[in-house]
Every structure is written in C-alpha cells, then in structure tokens.
# Entry
Amino acid sequence: MFKRRSIGLFLCFLAIIAICTLASSNAAAVVASKNTATTTKAKRTATRSSTRSLALVAVPTSIALSAAPTSVWLKTNSTLSGSLNTPDASTGSANPVANEPIQIQVSTNSTSWTVVKTVTTAANGGFTTPVAITNASAEYRAVFTGDSNYAASQSATIRVTGFVASTRLVSTGPTKVKAETLTTFSGHYEVNDSRMNSHPAISGARVDVYRRDAYGAGWTLATTAVSNTSGNIAWRAKVSTPTYWKLVGHATSTSHGSGSGEYLPHVVPIGTIYKLPAAAPKPIYLTPQPAAVGTGANPTVTAIPDRVWNDMTGKSWHAGCPVGRSQLLYMRVNYWGFDGYRHRGELVFRASQRAKYVSAFTRIYNNHVPLHGMYRVDKFGYSSVTHGGDDYASMRHDNTSAFNCRWVDGNPGTLSPHAYGTAVDINPYENPYHSAKGWTPNFWWRNHNFPPYTWRSRSALLVRAMLNAGFHWTYGNEDSQHFDT
# Structure
C-alpha cells in the first residue's frame, strides 16, 4: 500500500516537472520570436532610411541662354531662348529637364537682379520668350531655383542693348488741290534706322505742321498734330495760292525727332487765268504777292506803319512833298491775279480819300478785274528823272500803285496828282498813256483791247467801277491807266 502511494507521488512529481519544462520552453520560444521580429523591423527601418537619404542628393543641372537680337529698338522685344539639362556621366551627353520654372532676370548694374518673366521648360527642356527691352543697356540671365530632385543653377549673363531709333517723316497728302477749298493733308511718321530691317510706325508723337506761301515770307506754324497707331497724321486747311508744307516731328522716349522735306501740291486756281496774246509785248515778270487774307476784298486801312514809312522815305516820299505821314493811310486789300489766284496788295493814299479807295478796290475785286501786282512804288527804287519813286519801272512791271511824290512825266518841277495821294494807276502796261515821248510804256496795247484787264471807253467794266466809287477818268484814252479824285 505504502509502495503504491510512493510510486504515484513520484509520477505526479515527474508530470509537474515536465509541465514546467514545457511551459518554460514555450516562453523562451515566444521571447525568441519577439526578438526576431524586432530585429527584422529594425533592418527594414534602416533600409528605408538609407533609401531616403539617397533621394535627397539632388541631381545637378545646367542652363544655356541666348538672345536675338542683342540690340533692339527700345520698348520692342528681344527673344530669349535656352534649355535646362542634367549631365549624363555615363554617356557624356545632357538629358532635358521638363516642366520646371525658369526665371528671366535683368540687371542694369550687375548687382541687383529683378525677375521680369517666368517660363516653364518644354518636353525637350527648352524655353523661349519675348522680353521687352526698356533699358539702353542691361544684362539678362536665366535662373532655376531647384527642387527636391534637381539642383539650382543659372546661365551665363547676356547683354542686350536698346537704342533710340532714327526716324523719317514724309508728307502723303494730295498732289493736286483746289484753291479756297478745305482740304485734308496728311503725313506719315516711321522708324528709319539702318540697325532695323523694318520701318515700324511711330505713334503718339507730336508733329508740328508748317506752311509757307510760295509768294510770301517765311514759315509759319499752321497746327500741331499727333501721330496715330499707324504713324499717320492729318490736318485740314485752305490755300489761296501755291503753298509749301513741311513737318517737324518731336522726339519720343524711343525715337529721335526728324523733319520732312518741303511738299508743294499743285493748287488749281478758282479764278480765271489770263494769258496775254502771243503777239503782245509782255511786262517784266513781277513776283506774285502773298495769298489773300479772309473773304472778299477784305480791305484793312491803318496809319502808315514804321517799316513802311522807313521804306517810303527817300523814294516815294521826301522833304518838300505836299503831304506828310499823318495825311496818308496804308491799305491792304485782296485782288484777283492774272494767274487766277487771290492775292493781297498794298496802296498808300490821301487819308481824306479813304472811302473812295476802299470802294474802288472792293469793286475791282468783286468784278474780278485781274491785276498783275499792287506793290508800293518804293519797290522799284528812286528815280532822279521823276524826282520820286521810279514810275517807269513800275509801269514796265505792270504794277498798280497810288501815292508817289514825283513830277509829271516830261514836266520837271510840276507835281503829279500822285504826289498828293489822290491818284492811282491801274494795269499800266496794258493801258499805256500818251506822254511827250510817245506812248508809254508801249504802243502795241494802245490799239488792242482785251477786257476786263484793258479798257478803252467809259462803258468798260473797270471804268464804270471807278466812276461809281467817286474817281475821275480824267484823261480818257490819252492816259487810260490813270484815275484820280
């Protein structure tokens, strides 16, 4: 009995030991398994960390840049082109870098840089962009700022200059215009520079328009125009006689100023053109007077201006004359020329006869009686023969004139009615007078009559106009040119 119990207890003890051993073995296995898993995870983490470190080493890049042209008209474009690449060490070639931003930067002092444009590289790594050139001289460069994959880089600098262009200004108006008609004239302002292959228009520039009567004095400013986007300018004006035009363009921030040549369109007169008969003797050419002013005869009467009086003294007026400066008046008045244009003439006459002279020459204008000229006789200088202005020269030029403190032709010492400012000679060449020396200035015209610029009777248009104005045709056909009050 006792032996059986001892054996049983012994077996139980062995079983307990076995169970404990098995439990200990399982626990060790679990610990070992955990340690193995930890080691494997550590290895994986280390591998990932190593891979990430390799990715943060950016690939080097390079940029090429060019500009065309490198000298351009200010505020126009130069085209900047280039490419972004990575070097391939194995082949020695370059691989394009696409879809990356490239900054175009500018500097005028090589120190501070400003971004003027940002472009994106194409599939081949290239980029092209126009850049407005606003500086006389500046440097440009292309800059890539880099990212997690590619290192930053920049190109070499390129200098691009901007120049102020030379220009050309031309008149483009009509070649023929009608006198006294409001006409549109025009011009064109453009670049004309040997550094450029084209002639772009200059817009927004001021252009002064000058005019000069072909028979008048100097140039006068007619108007100021502004060129449009096509470089064109236009202005409107009337002309009475042949008139020159010229244009002066102002400089702009991108272009030099320039002037046009003289432009003279053919002006078609609105009056009748009178040509003397082929067989007739002709007067000496008399320079046509300046264009008429205003409408109609438009007479203006004033005291004798200083410049006129200074010119008269010693010619048509001198010491001993029966009238002085205060007794004389100066008139400017329009008249019709033989050339069909309206001109403006001048007369000096006695102040007391003002109304008659104004009326007479208004009637002459209204009746379209042509005159070759209406200069003061002083134009022809002094004559010792007549002791006054050279009346003979005035007649040879067919000049209409009034006051002239001179002697009667062929009667030295006897003052002519012209010396008192109460007489006028009209178209003296075609309307000669019978002097002591014969018909002056010619005989041919005595026997020929071509109205309205000649007259041989009191019923003639000119004679009636003068009589109605209060003048006398004192000597009739013996001195048909002469009228007095």
About this structure: DSSP finds five helices and 30 strands in the chain.
